[in-house]
Specification:
Layout lengths: L4 E3 L13 H4 L22 H4 L12 E8 L7 E6 L4 E7 L2 E5 L14 E3 L2 E3 L6 E3 L5 E3 L8 E7 L2 E7 H6 L19 E7 L3 H12 L6 E4 L20 H4 L4 H6 L2 E4 L4 E5 L4 E4 L4 E9 L3 E3 L12 E3 L3 H11 L3 E5 L3 H10 L5 E5 L7 H4 L1 H13 L2 E4 L4 E7 L2 E7 L4 E3 L2 E4 L3 E3 L17 E2 L11 E3 L4 E5 L5 E3 L4 H15 L11 E6 L2 E7 L6 E7 L4 E8 L2 E8 L4 H10 L6 H5 L13
Parallel strand pairs: 12-13, 12-17, 13-14, 17-29, 19-26, 20-21, 20-26, 21-22, 28-30
Antiparallel strand pairs: 1-3, 2-11, 3-4, 4-5, 5-10, 6-7, 7-8, 8-9, 10-11, 15-16, 16-17, 18-27, 23-24, 24-25, 30-31, 32-33, 33-36, 34-35, 35-36
Helix pairs in contact: 4-11
Length: about 600
């Protein structure tokens, strides 16, 4: 039987369809990033240990087989989504060879057929994750799981795919992981590797260690009360519970011998005795330490600090409370950070009124430039959000202790039942004072290219670090992106195992507001010009950020998959000149990606 194959040419198109299932789509309880090579014997485990992952035994009826196209139907460098009856697969032809993998990105479910195929991997059109087309392994982030692979053969010029039905349904795969072979009493105050923080950096670090064959104890501690969850969704989907946002369940972590200690805040580190002290007075010694405590809100000075219903968005409870209190009431957002603006957008269909107070004249001007910032501001105003720019908060006024008014320094008084402060954040590194770990004047921890601090055996990653970034001649930079934290976790884990690897990634960031997504790739700090193609006012554009005649970053709305295409070019080490993007001719971006 020949199943219909839907051909989608990979071209630069303006997409109205696929209208952002990525804005809200459930995370599918992703799995930390997965490479499917066997774990191997990395100084800690034998080949037998690595092979000890349970093998799934299937019967023939667990498989489906279908002829999906003629061998000449596809050109090199082409991708096609094909229907096998029990599910869909992504069929790829590169260098004359066919391969088939899962068709949805395991991160948020993006259709990979609309992504970018290049040099043996496919890059997600939404958030830039990369997957090896031969193994299905995740090679760049965000997301935690890899893709299933399917058998492909050619018979009588017909391309036939044989696939496991379960893999077709799940569309994702966790990499095999080693187990802990050390005999450990869980009350023992020692861990071979101690991870402080359970965000993407900490989680990916723990899983990479197990994937790469580490068989000693791993303890991950967090001040959060939940297992790792998808924090970027808090500001976009305010009513989501911790369980809905969960990246890994307790059961998953236990199955892979990753011990999680919740509500366990580190208050001191002593690198001489190799010990971390916690707020509850307990202490844990380590052989190697990974610090990934993330950001904390910057304090804001105003009168009325004790007034209730004023929130920093830190936890699922904060988000849930904001959504509940804003229902048919007046919401005020202080600050035009991405988090603040996303919360404002999420509240417009719930609240009676939404007001934003900003210290700048235009939101996002520093990150995205004046034109893009103004266009996004207009989008908010169209959705009845009121801006009070070039302003600051003087006082929060309460009635019976609950917020009733926000007073601005200009004298303007805003009615307010709930207030969200989104004025930015700084590194949560106060506990490292007198630790021996070097912290700079801004609170960041400088690390080398393997994510190691100035102290041997102590690593750090995520929002708290400055690290040598290849895209800026290894200048030390801070890039507090969700995606970058994943990369740091992987690099640190490999460094701990004596397999130093360098950061090879293009920073990728996204935001979602009113069902529209903004994509951003590169490192645009210090850009001196913006070249815009498309129509900014219609929010169908691509903006190239240049520095000294060179493109250093790109942002787009409704122009997929151009940001992933540019990320692919930047990631290959090529330089994109300003003159290349000023002409409006994008043909240099739309090659078949198969050289």
């Amino acid at each position: 039987m020949v199943c219909p194959a839907v051909e989608v040419k990979v071209e630069l198109t303006l997409l109205e369809k696929d209208k952002e299932a990525d804005v809200m789509s459930p995370n599918g309880k992703a799995s930390p990033f997965s490479d499917c090579r066997p774990n191997g014997a990395l100084g800690h485990s034998s080949d037998e240990d690595a092979a000890a992952a349970p093998l799934r035994l299937y019967k023939p009826r667990d498989y489906v087989e279908a002829s999906v196209c003629h061998v000449k139907d596809m050109e090199n460098g082409q991708m096609r989504e094909v229907d096998l009856g029990s599910g869909r697969a992504l069929l790829i032809k590169e260098h004359g060879d066919f391969s088939a993998i899962g068709h949805k990105c395991p991160h948020y479910g993006a259709p990979l057929v609309k992504g970018v195929l290049s040099k043996g991997h496919v890059r997600c059109p939404w958030h830039g994750a990369c997957f090896n087309i031969a193994t299905g392994d995740i090679e760049d982030f965000p997301g935690l799981d890899s893709l299933p692979t399917f058998q492909v053969r050619v018979e009588k010029d017909k391309v036939i795919i044989r696939a496991n039905k379960q893999d077709l349904q799940s569309q994702k795969r966790s990499k095999a992981m080693a187990r802990c072979s050390a005999v450990i009493n869980s009350s023992t105050g020692f861990s071979h590797i101690l991870i402080v923080g359970s965000g993407p950096a900490g989680l990916v670090c723990a899983e990479t260690l197990r994937q790469e064959g580490f068989t000693d104890r791993i303890v991950m501690c967090t001040m959060d009360k939940y297992p790792p969850y998808d924090r970027p969704k808090l500001s976009k989907s305010l009513e989501s519970t911790a369980e809905q946002l969960q990246l890994r369940s307790i059961d998953f972590l236990q199955a892979h011998d990753i011990e999680l200690l919740t509500e366990k805040e580190a208050v001191a580190v002593d690198v001489k005795t190799k010990a971390v002290t916690f707020q509850d007075g307990s202490r844990m010694e380590y052989r190697k330490l990974f610090i990934a405590t993330g950001s904390k809100p910057k304090p804001m000075n105003y009168k009325g600090q004790d007034v209730r219903n004023v929130f920093h968005l830190r936890t699922p409870e904060d988000a849930n409370n904001v959504a509940r209190l804003a229902n048919n009431k007046n919401a005020v957002i202080v600050g035009t950070s991405f988090v603040g603006m996303e919360v404002a957008a999420a509240l417009t269909d719930k609240a009676h009124s939404v007001s934003i107070i900003g210290i700048e004249a235009v939101p996002f001007r520093k990150a995205l430039g004046e034109k893009v910032g103004k266009a996004i501001m207009k989008l908010f105003e169209t959705n009845r959000v009121k801006f009070y720019m070039l302003n600051e908060v003087s006082e929060m006024v309460g009635h019976h202790g609950q917020l009733k008014e926000v007073v601005l320094k200009s004298g303007k008084v805003l009615r307010a039942d709930v207030c969200i402060i989104g004025t930015g954040s700084g590194p949560a590194t106060g506990f490292l004072k007198q630790s021996g770990v070097h912290v700079d004047s801004k609170g960041f921890v400088p690390v080398n290219k393997t994510m190691q601090t100035n102290v041997d055996g102590v690593y750090a990653g995520g929002d708290i670090v400055t690290f040598p970034f290849p895209g800026r001649s290894n200048k030390k930079v801070n890039i507090p992106h969700w995606q970058m934290a994943h990369v740091h976790g992987r690099v640190a884990a490999l460094g701990m195992m004596g397999r130093p690897t360098e950061i090879k990634t293009v920073p990728y960031f996204w935001s979602a507001m009113f069902g529209k997504s903004l994509r951003y790739a590169g490192y645009g700090e210090g850009f001196d010009d913006v070249v815009i193609q498309g129509d900014v006012d219609e929010l169908k554009f691509v903006a190239f950020y240049t520095r000294s005649e060179e493109v250093v970053a790109v942002a787009s709305m409704n122009y997929d998959p151009i940001v992933s295409r540019v990320a692919e070019v930047l990631g290959s080490g090529k330089t994109i000149r300003k003159r290349d993007v000023e002409t409006g001719d994008m043909s240099w971006l739309i090659d078949k990606g198969s050289q």
